[in-house]
Amino acid sequence: MSIDEKIVADFVANRIEFVTTVPCKQLGGVIDQVERSPQIHHVPSNKEDEGMGLCAGAFMGGKRAAIIMQNTALGVTGNTLATLIQFYRIPLPMLISYRGELGEPIACQVEMAVHTKALLAQLHIPTYHFHRQEDVGEFDKILKYTYMCNKPVAILTDASFWGGY
Amino acid sequence: MIRSEVLREIVPLISDHLVVCNIGLPSQELHHIDDQPSNFYMLGTMGLASSIGLGLALAQKEKVIAIDGDGSVLTNLGTLPTVANNVADNFILLIIDNGSYGSTGDQPTYAGKKTSLAAVARACGCETVVEVAAKDTAQALKTALEGDKMTVIVSKCISGNIKLPVIAMDPVVIRDRFMREVQRRNS
Ligand SMILES: [Mg+2]
């Protein structure tokens, strides 16, 4: 089973039926798997705060929802995380490509990478960092943890985890 | 007609449906006129009423009406292509377009100038889009509810507000009450 297949299998095993995505090169494979999964309703969104709104609505409609996005989007979702997801206590797994780490070819990505963990810490969002391929073994537990505590939970996945570009 | 008068006219139609209501005065007005468990009030997060409403409509069978504003749609304009391309025939997006940011003191929006939100919605691919004068909103909504077709309604009204207190309900109570109602109606 590939990492992409494992992540989507864990989504399905945890009854996550609605996934919204904003693409990133690193996430291409997992987004393809989400699109292919018959158990998951995939709704691409144009911006991550919009995606979080879709997830909040789907959750209230009875479907567990997750978002797949890039870490740069933490710069545009602060208000939505605080005033919608956290204020109303909506569980939200956020699978995030952690651009700007080792192996990154684009200097500008580092500019948000240096703020990524600080922003998540400031927002009191439980954060996990997948660096080695075997780290994906914790994904299932992280999803269960998310629905135990009804919080947004971030899973940062860097280039080493995805095996480079 | 101002927004609160439009809301008063449509309450008999929306009262029996799931409603996601925009931040600020629209939610305060709906809460004041017709508070009930089938209403989800946004206490923050300007712009996301249409996104929350669409997510809700896609996830369950009951009809959903998102009450949005022109300023809020402008702040999340990317929502219209998402609505157009993810058709939910149980979804109605009602944009009450008073050409101003009502909750912040009636500063003008571009929707009150050159920008037509109905034309934007059509250009984004929304198939059923109607623009009506405020007094015809209830009729347009009635038609949309009977039509079982995803519909965007742009209701052109004048700006103006009534003085109301903020909603004191806890957000978790609003959400929990709403979710129980969604579940009850779907079971
Ligand atoms: Mg307005």
Task: Report what the structure shows.
The complex is a heterodimer of chains A (165) and B (187). In chain A, 47% of the residues lie in helices and 20% in strands. Chain A has a six-stranded parallel sheet, sandwiched between helices. Chain A has helices spanning 3-13, 28-36, 48-60, 74-86, 107-122, 139-149, 159-162; strands at residues 16-21, 41-44, 64-70, 92-97, 127-130, 152-157. Chain A is built from seven helices and six strands. Chain A is globular and about 40 Å long. Chain A has one domain (3-157): 3-Layer(aba) Sandwich (Rossmann fold). In chain A, α2 (28-36) links the parallel β1 and β2. With 165 residues, chain A is α/β, with parallel strands linked by helices. Chain B has eight helices and eight strands, in the order αβαβαβααβββαβαβα. A six-stranded parallel sheet of chain B has the order 2-1-3-4-8-7, sandwiched between helices. In chain B, strands 5-6 form a two-stranded antiparallel sheet. The longest helix of chain B is centred in the last third of the chain and has 16 residues, at 171-186. Chain B has a single domain, classed as 3-Layer(aba) Sandwich (Rossmann fold). Chain B has 187 residues and is an alpha/beta fold. The model of chain B has no long low-confidence stretch (mean pLDDT 97). Chain B is globular. In chain B, β5 and β6 form a beta hairpin. Chains A and B meet through β2, α3 and α4 of A and α3, α5 and α8 of B. Bound molecules: magnesium ion. Residues 69-71, 98, 100-102, 109 of chain B line the site of magnesium ion. Chain B: Keywords: Decarboxylase, Lyase. Chain B: This is Sulfopyruvate decarboxylase subunit beta. Chain B: Its EC number is 4.1.1.79. Chain B: It is an enzyme of class 4 (lyase). Chain B: GO terms for molecular function: sulfopyruvate decarboxylase activity. Chain A: Keywords: Decarboxylase, Lyase.
